Amino acid sequence: xxxxxxxxxxxxxxxxxxxxxxxxxxxxxxxxxxxxxxxxxxxxxxxxxxxxxxxxxxxxxxxxxxxxxxxxxxxxxxxxxxxxxxxxxxxxxxxxxxxxxxxxxxxxxxxxxxxxxxxxxxxxxxxxxxxxxxxxxxxxxxxxxxxxxxxxxxxxxxxxxxxxxxxxxxxxxxxxxxxxxxxxxxxxxxxxxxxxxxxxxxxxxxxxxxxxxxxxxxxxxxxxxxxxxxxxxxxxxx
Amino acid sequence: xxxxxxxxxxxxxxxxxxxxxxxxxxxxxxxxxxxxxxxxxxxxxxxxxxxxxxxxxxxxxxxxxxxxxxxxxxxxxxxxxxxxxxxxxxxxxxxxxxxxxxxxxxxxxxxxxxxxxxxxxxxxxxxxxxxxxxxxxxxxxxxxxxxxxxxxxxxxxxxxxxxxxxxxxxxxxxxxxxxxxxxxxxxxxxxxxxxxxxxxxxxxxxxxxxxxxxxxxxxxxxxxxxxxxxxxxxxxxxxxxxxxxxxxxxxxxxxxxxxxxxxxxxxxxxxxxxxxxxxxxxxxxxxxxxxxxxxxxxxxxxxx
Lengths: 238, 304
What we know:
Chain A is an alpha/beta fold. Chain A has helices spanning 43-51, 73-78, 96-103, 110-123, 125-129, 140-152, 170-185, 197-203, 221-225, 228-235; strands spanning 5-14, 17-27, 32-36, 56-63, 66-67, 81-84, 158-162, 189-194, 206-211, 214-220.
């Protein structure tokens, strides 16, 4: 099975402010791996570093044995990374269908793109009804569908999902977590960044807790439930 | 009535030239949030390379008006397109993280260098150069008004180029990438869009429009000079700002509005036609205080 993403001691900074100081994670093929941590712990920075949007000064990022660290973001996507960014980041002045087509930018096979489009519309019938609507005029839940559908259009081997629950109602959060599990069962490895601990641990196979740019705890969901580092990372209890 | 029609027609022709320049400004601002002030001088470069193409055809003894026109346009677009890519690749993209002011100043200096080089290196470069007549000047009568055939063809050409550009941005894969980069550069990259390549393609596209505008301007006035792009650049930039920087339709509306202002002035005060730019710019300053974000404000418009 493919879709094995690892980072090895990566270090990254915004200007002189170091945001990642030697983060190593191992997202196993076919698994849901979660990254937990409080606001500002470095979760989103880690995602941006993996995608190449945040340059890393040291360390190595690998996908299925291939080194990604020196590639530009679009080349990393071409190697099989997909992303549902924090805040969904749909293209507001594009229609739903155009958003989805941007997701398949790297594929030049028209029939293939058409097939994937139909598959996304099957998963989200709502998007099929609204394919000509500007994505910026849609509700948060609908934009979440656009963002997830767009990421699936490239048929990634590893899907990075950053805070899917942000700004959604509890019912929609439950729905998106169920959907993430479905996507995972279809054979896509998932790296899930979340603040919503209980629901994340319920679907994740393995998790890492990040605090101040380093991994402070890791383990299976059961192990993390009872880890004292977990509470510290979230509530600052010492 | 006939006079009115002639004014309207000439205004439309000027409008289409301004719109071509303004669309370039809007495209650059769209993808990179930069104001590229060398744009007008790239237009001058286009006009001179078109002229050079014509002169070399003449030296070869070829004298076929239609072929010459196409050749002149192709050379002008090629040179301006490459100039756009070079300015983007070596100056604007590397300076991406720096304040907008620095980029504005830098491109202003690049533009000055371009037109100074033309003045110094072109033989007799300080003087105006006659631009060849490549289109038939047959007068056509429309409703009592006489309109030159070449002007009519130029108008059709300009509108055609704008329509094709708009279609490209709306309906091709490159256009999709340009719009994605314009709306959210980071997200565009993680969809697999090669950022730098798309930005440079946009610079090429916008600069090629300036090349067309430069040739059209030369054909219309039968004359070019090394300074022609300076005023056209400012007019194009003002048009883009009035229309709402970042919107293609805004740039087109802005270009035609500027020409309309000039035309209205000449129509009412023919003996003071030299003040048409003063009037047009003054009106635009007033318009900008009323609508600071332009006629089509970016947040309501479909950006690029």
